[in-house]
Every structure is written in structure tokens, then in C-alpha cells.
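Quick one, C-alpha cells below. Sequence please?
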């Protein structure tokens, strides 16, 4: 066992890092990625300074422990981006309360309205084409309108 540690070298760390990152693909959870990154860093530093095996293990432990706050910071930044754009991936909810002009009349409760570069089907009370309507409800790709 001691011989394994004494022969620990640069290539061992690089291979270990790539194996950990590959395992992350099989078992996603972001944890193995950071350990793999720590192993890669130890391997790259070992090219430059050629440390003892004890120092290599200590560097791996420090890098792996430092990865936790880095990961938390990055995860927090990602959630703040989604908070700054609350309608991301909920495009129809952003339309509630906006007014548009009917492109095709609402007949028997169904018509269309042009919103930006897209034609949307709308449901609501019968109204002629060119009427102003306000979106009152959005459910998936279905918009419900009322006279504006």
C-alpha cells in the first residue's frame, strides 16, 4: 500500500481526474466533477513542482475542500440569474395583462392574435378581427382573452 503512494505521480492524478469526471456523466450530481477537477489541478501542479506524495495528497484535500464554497457560489449565482428573469421558460405568463389586436376574429370562442413574430390561438368571447383584447389567463400554449 505504501508503495502505491510513493509511486503516485502526475499521470496518476490526471487519469484519476478524468475518471472522476467521466463517472460524473454516469452518476450526475456535480460532486464527482469537483473531485475530478481537484485531481486534475494536482496533476498539473505536479508537472511544474514535482512534490512528494504527501504534498500531493494534501493538495488534493485542499483543492477538494475549496471546491465546495466555489460550487456554492456558482450555484447561488445561477439561481440569482433565474430570479432576475422570473418568466424564463414561462413565456405565456409574462403576457398576462398585455393588450393586443385580434388578427382573426374570435368565432365560437376561438381566434388568433399576433404577438411579436408568433400567431397565438386565443379563447374568449366572440369579437371581430381588429378588436383590442387583453390576456387574462395563460395555461401552457392556451391564452384566454377579454375585451380591452
Amino acid at each position: 500500500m505504501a508503495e502505491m503512494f510513493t509511486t503516485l505521480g502526475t499521470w496518476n492524478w490526471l487519469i484519476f481526474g478524468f475518471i472522476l469526471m467521466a463517472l460524473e456523466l454516469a452518476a450526475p450530481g456535480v460532486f464527482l466533477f469537483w473531485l475530478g477537477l481537484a485531481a486534475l489541478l494536482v496533476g498539473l501542479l505536479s508537472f511544474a513542482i514535482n512534490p512528494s506524495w504527501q504534498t500531493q495528497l494534501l493538495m488534493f484535500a485542499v483543492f477538494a475542500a475549496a471546491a465546495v464554497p466555489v460550487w456554492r457560489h456558482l450555484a447561488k449565482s445561477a439561481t440569482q440569474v433565474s430570479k432576475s428573469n422570473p418568466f424564463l421558460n414561462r413565456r405565456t405568463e409574462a403576457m398576462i395583462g398585455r393588450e393586443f389586436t385580434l388578427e382573426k376574429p374570435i368565432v365560437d370562442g376561438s381566434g388568433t392574435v399576433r404577438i411579436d413574430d408568433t400567431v397565438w390561438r386565443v379563447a374568449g368571447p366572440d369579437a371581430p378581427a381588429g378588436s383590442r383584447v387583453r390576456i387574462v389567463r395563460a395555461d401552457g400554449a392556451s391564452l384566454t382573452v377579454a375585451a380591452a
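The mean pLDDT is 85. The longest helix spans residues 53-84.
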